[in-house]
Amino acid sequence: MIKLKILALLCSLFLLNSLYAEDYKFNNHEYKKNHIHKNLDYLNLDKKQLEKIKDILIKYRKKYDKYSKKKALKEQKLKELIKQENFDKEEYEEILEDIYEDAAELEAKVIKRIHSVLTVEQRKKFSYYLKEWRVE
């Protein structure tokens, strides 16, 4: 009975190790240690992919500039709300939601376009650095 328990314990440890081995391998990869923000060199893109990604990022840059200007105007409205005698909580929340919705929409569009260019393996690698693509 003890041998069976030890065997079950060893098998479960082996299975747990294999489940986390992929993440451990990538987290300790040389790219992770030397990674530059929003650099896609670790994906080893071919020429076609590289051109498509460049086009996406150029369009993204233009849209992000528009978003930044719109966000600045909305933040100015938030400041004006704070200065008023009576604080309008609903309007404040509405403006904040608009800012977050615009950011989420812009981010989703860009990620969708990048996703369509990448292979399955490249998507897996890209997912580890998804946080740096957040629109703020």
From TrEMBL:
Protein name: Periplasmic heavy metal sensor
Keywords: Coiled coil, Signal
Pfam family of the protein (one): Metal_resist
InterPro entries reported in the protein's UniProt record: Metal_resist
Organism: Halarcobacter anaerophilus
Ranges in coiled-coil conformation: 50-109
UniProt signal peptide: 1-21
